[in-house]
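Hey, can you fold this one?
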Amino acid sequence: MKILGIETSCDETAAAVVENGVVILSNQIASQVEIHARYGGIVPEVASRQHILTIIPIIKQAIAKAKVTWNDLDGIAVTIGPGLAGSLLVGVNVAKAIAMAHDLPIIGMNHLEGHIYANWLIDATPDSAPVFPLVCLIVSGGHSDLILMKEHQDYTLLGRTRDDAAGEAFDKAARILGLGYPGGPAIEQAARSGTASIPLPRAWLKGTNDFSFSGIKTALRRLVEEDKITSKADAAASFQEAVADVLVTKTVAAAREYRVKQILLAGGVAANGFLRQSLMTNSSLPVLIPPLKLCTDNASMIASCGYYRFQAGKIDGLDLDVVPNLKLA
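Sure. Predicted structure:
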């Protein structure tokens, strides 16, 4: 079964064709990073206009690279939320037009659910698939969620950020230190030549699985304002370690509490090498992490998850609409 995935939730225009939920036949992405870098962050109106310009060429590339025709496809999976309303509308409207023109079923997708399913694309062999029950840490620019997953499409929210998400905190920290945009890669790059020698606070929120990163960001800003930062590299390394410490400690504790068999990492911040290594080092359970190219927004993860939803009979109609604040659980 071949599913066309379409992803336009933020600033990446992406299309992919995935077979049986695990085999990537194509995975095309048009990034807007250089466009938004001049503004120091994503400008929603600019993002949606750029999606309009690139989405048709990207879909054509995905179909061509997969060496399939419209008749070979079994369905279309498209992100409906969470995300920027204008960006989401571009993807959803194009997906509905294609579905109507080629008489294909359409599956509305949760962007966060898609990130989880990037872990099903690591290897096409059945033995490599994630094992239930599991705990998944989803860390991205707008979300830091801990999810208990007992089966496909069975999600229980264990904890989420109460303020800044991890990716948002990285962006703000990079801006404070003058390291550029996007913040995650900038912080990681600077941290490589520094040491985590600057004490920064951790918000543990004891008794919960929730996260909070605004305090770490504020502490860093005060140090900069008071001219107490002598090394940007040390500041970046200290900030990165503080954020990773909280994420990893709470994830490992939740996995132990719910007696799961595996831990999954997903989302754009999952590309951070320090976080990846720290989670694998501190967990006694197997840890599954997507390759770097599948951590950031892409359409293959949407197509993969769409396959499993299609198998479960979860198909939408052409009245499908975007839900910018869509929740996973």
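The two ends are 28 Å apart (CA to CA). Let me know if you want another pass with a different chain boundary.
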